């Protein structure tokens, strides 16, 4: 299999200049070869996106919306097939790809498809005049994705961009080239003009070319803080608009009146879903002292029952991390935790066999790790690990835990567990994070804005808020009287 570009409505032959092998994280067997987009291919993608934009922007919102909703239906009709592709490419359990990845991509297309006909400006009654605003598209938008939720990230960017009348060129992560191509095919099948959603493959250099390209109006990245800073700086030279969905080291705060079982479930969801490779994960779990021991006991028992194994097996609950290099990085963090004095309560080892006794030694598997005896200054409590590693910290008072939770340059997410409704809101209102939960964690319905404070991002995805990030506002003043002139 060769993964090439999708330009102007079709998969290109590509040219084998710079290329590399794409591996299945579960066994490190090759899945195919990726051909990096050449400069000529990037220019061809821009030319075809420009043509599509000229057609697309003249469509009514209802016409655009229909295409998005068709595309959502196509994704849903191919659920099994695309979920399997995603699982083989990313290493996540098929149960997750089936339940979340493809359907949340389809949700975004449906939501913004339904909204497209309702995107409008405002009217202003003025003295002897009136004014109105128009929400106009920006033009060609670039989407640049991370590897943990490839099709979801592509759809979360494409859906609002296209609903608003823009076209998009999307660059998936060099580690996960597969399902953005499926989304591109779905748009074509759904009736989109050729070039409306192009895909270019490649590494950060291709991403940087998109950021620098003078005919690209906006860049939306999902990635690390370090890449976000580079893209922000690159876009600044042309004052391009950016949306940045970046990393985090989010707090999950559990008060002693919380429902223990739910709190443990949430802490596990907040750390072990998709092998812990989730930007919004609540990796600093603050537990109030009175329930610390009982929380830890239940968390350990339930974590040790997680079924690690072949991601394509429907019973598997934890798959393989994205690459050998990433596995080594996570293990380095685990070593750092141990050497800094934290106690590894369970996990953090590379299993040889899965829960059915099958040999998984060739894959990038890691058993979910829980650290206790942690303090706030340890590397494992400060840096984003992006793997199945949970750190537990104890606390006494509300004021103390709020200060400690906020003591980070990140601000993507936060969670609070308590049965005291007043405290739940009071604490959440003081946490410096863009996406928060009370008595749950990592739930991201399309209706709610998603994004970060501080170094975790700029702008918002999902919800009505995304519309303002994919349109520009034009104000029009209309005179009904004479021009009053002093000359
Ligand atoms: P990276 O920042 O390494 O890469 C993200 C994307 O940016 C990739 O496609 C990458 O290309 C590209 N890129 C790298 N350098 C440049 C550059 N100079 N100019 C333009 N594009 C560039 O992140 P990962 O892929 O490793 O993903 C993990 C990170 O993503 C974590 O920090 C995680 O928190 C964050 N993330 C944030 C989410 C959010 O919504 N807030 C959701 C999911 C993940 P290449 O193909 O070479 O990697």
Using the CA coordinates, give the radius of gyration.
24 Å
The total count of strands amounts to: 21
Bound ligand species? NADPH dihydro-nicotinamide-adenine-dinucleotide phosphate
What is the overall silhouette? Answer: globular
Figure out the total of helices. 15
Q: Average pLDDT value? A: 98
Low-confidence segments, ≥5 residues, pLDDT <50?
none
Strand-residue proportion: 15-25%
Helix content: 25-40%
Structural class based on helices, strands and sheet pairing: alpha/beta
Largest sheet: 7 strands, mixed
How would you write the strand order of the largest sheet? 15-16-17-14-13-18-19
Q: Gap between N and C termini, in Å?
A: 73 Å
Task: Describe the protein's architecture and organization.
The chain is of the alpha/beta class and 487 residues long. Helix content is 38%, strand content 20%. The chain has 15 helices and 21 strands. The chain has helices at residues 39-56, 61-77, 79-90, 94-115, 150-163, 179-189, 204-212, 225-236, 260-272, 292-303, 324-339, 379-382, 398-406, 421-430, 465-469; strands at residues 2-3, 6-7, 10-11, 19-23, 30-35, 123-126, 129-137, 140-144, 167-171, 197-199, 218-222, 241-245, 251-254, 284-288, 343-346, 369-372, 389-395, 413-417, 435-438, 457-458, 471-479. It has a 7-stranded mixed β-sheet with strand order 15-16-17-14-13-18-19, with helices on both faces. The mean pLDDT is 98. The site of NADPH dihydro-nicotinamide-adenine-dinucleotide phosphate (NDP) has 28 residues, from helix 7, strand 11 and helix 8.
């Amino acid at each position: 299999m060769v993964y090439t570009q999708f330009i102007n409505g079709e998969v290109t032959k590509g040219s084998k200049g710079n290329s590399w092998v794409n591996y299945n994280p579960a066994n490190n067997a090759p899945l195919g070869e990726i051909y990096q987009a050449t400069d000529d291919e990037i220019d061809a993608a821009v030319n075809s996106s420009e043509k599509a934009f000229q057609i697309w922007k003249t469509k009514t919102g209802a016409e655009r919306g229909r295409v998005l909703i068709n595309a959502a239906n196509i994704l849903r009709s191919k659920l099994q097939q695309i979920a399997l592709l995603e699982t083989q490419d990313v290493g996540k359990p098929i149960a997750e790809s089936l339940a979340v990845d493809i359907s949340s991509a389809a949700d975004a297309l449906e939501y913004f498809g339904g909204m497209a006909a309702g995107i409008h400006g405002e009217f202003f009654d003025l003295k002897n005049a009136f004014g109105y605003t128009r929400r106009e598209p920006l033009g060609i938008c670039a989407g640049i994705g991370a590897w943990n939720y490839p099709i979801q990230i592509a759809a979360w960017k494409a859906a609002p961009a296209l609903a608003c009348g823009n076209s998009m060129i999307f660059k998936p992560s060099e580690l996960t080239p597969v399902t953005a191509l499926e989304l591109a095919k779905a748009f074509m099948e759904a009736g989109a003009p050729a070039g409306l959603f192009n895909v270019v493959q490649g590494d950060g250099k291709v991403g940087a070319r998109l950021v620098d390209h003078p005919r690209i109006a906006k860049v939306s990245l999902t990635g690390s803080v370090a890449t976000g800073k580079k893209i922000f700086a690159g876009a600044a030279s042309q004052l391009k608009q950016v949306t940045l969905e970046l990393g985090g080291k989010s707090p999950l705060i559990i008060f002693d009146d919380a429902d223990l079982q739910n709190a443990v479930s949430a802490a596990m969801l907040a750390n072990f879903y998709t092998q812990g490779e989730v930007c919004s994960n609540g990796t600093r779990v603050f537990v109030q002292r009175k329930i610390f021991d009982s929380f830890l006991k239940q968390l350990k028992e339930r974590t040790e029952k997680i079924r690690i194994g072949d991601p394509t097996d429907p019973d598997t609950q934890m798959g393989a991390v994205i690459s050998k290099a990433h596995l080594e990085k996570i293990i380095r963090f685990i070593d750092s935790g141990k050497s800094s004095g934290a106690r590894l309560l369970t996990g953090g080892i590379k299993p040889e066999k899965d829960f059915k006794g099958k040999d998984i030694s060739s894959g990038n598997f890691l058993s979910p790790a829980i650290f206790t005896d942690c303090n706030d200054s340890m590397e494992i409590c400060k840096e984003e690990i992006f793997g199945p590693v949970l750190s537990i910290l104890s606390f006494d008072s509300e004021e103390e835990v709020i200060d400690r939770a906020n003591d980070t340059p990140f601000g993507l997410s936060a969670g609070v567990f308590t049965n005291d409704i007043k405290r739940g809101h009071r604490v959440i209102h003081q946490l410096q994070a863009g996406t928060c939960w009370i008595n749950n964690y990592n739930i991201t319905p399309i209706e709610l804005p998603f994004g970060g404070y501080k170094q975790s991002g700029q702008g918002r995805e999902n919800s009505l808020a995304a519309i303002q990030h994919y349109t520009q506002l034009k104000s029009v003043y209309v005179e009904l009287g004479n021009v009053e002139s002093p000359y």
